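Handout, page 2. Input:
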Amino acid sequence: MSRAWSRTLNRLRWRYRWVLDAAGLSLLLTTALVAVYASYRWFGQDFRGYYAAARLVLVGGNPYDYSQLAPLLFQLDGRVGNNPFYYAPWWALAFTPFAIAIPYSAARVVWLTISLLLGFGALVLTQRVLGWRIRGGGRWLAYWTALFLLGWICLRYEQSGIFLLAVLAVLLWALQQDKDWLAGLALPLLLTKPNATFVPVAVITAVFWFRGHRRALLWAGIALLGLLLVSTLAIPGWYEPILGDELPNGLTQVLDGPQRVTGIRINTTLLDWLQGFGISKSIGWGVWGIVVLLSLWLLIWAWRREVHTVYLVALAVALGFIISPYTLQYDYPMLALALFWVYWKLPQVPAKQRWVGLAILAFLFGVLLWEGPISDGYWIVLGLGGLMLWLGWPRPAATTPVGAES
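Output:
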């Protein structure tokens, strides 16, 4: 009787796990599809800039010249909007197949679908590079929270943050597999948006040099030179508006065409976050300088204690967002690396510390529900960066699961 009862319990347990697994996957897929539909139907913003830049390249124009770009933006949907081109030149080249073969409305659907697939693959790979062994409903719930906290805003604005997360995940996986050529080829792609990636790129470059991956640095140099060469051949003089004074200041102003300012832009940065508390910009710059020095010290602290590469890069991503003078909340998908590390670490700490960590996470998830200006999203990077430091500080060497390779 006891054996039969035991077999019955085992069958029920497996059925229960299957139900949870199916429910979690259904929740993730449904939320993702709703997010894509909502972005296409009611939101969307920045893909129009990519598409127009690609069309301009095809007719021999310079996407960094806003006076050339503005008419093509207007042709898409009857408005110019705040879409000057501020990305690496190869980003415009990457969208030329869209501009050649796919009408604008259909191209938006294709881009959102690609972003969704890249996001799912990036989360799978992020979990793998962490060596975080979680399966079933718990895994889908973790993916869903990453989509909610970090992915939704990126999809809403049709931005590049999910692509950057995928590149970062591939790079870290390649390092663990000793595929230095692949890690090296991935590194320059992170410079597609250097304002969001300059700190992790610097740290990864140091990892390449000092932790036995110098071939990856060679491949990175070759790839970067290749990208710049192809970009210069395809867009002669692309850098001239950047070096001159023609590039519009859409980083701090809201534009609706060349020489047409409609407002002051608020970003998800320390300066704008402090201004939300009534702190003047002059004082804010002083605080920013102190935070930069503190961030540099924390990276040196982590490096000298030879922490795991994955933890080091995740910390660099968080600190990069903390000190960057220009980022927005839609750049945050790369923080999935920090979020998953926190998920892995919390069950290992004492109960009181765990409950405090869970309370902080609950607060961060609530930010999307109550935030007003986009600068409120800065709480997210502060919280995740703080959790990484707090949970990793007592034992800096024990910062990655046993299953992950350095």
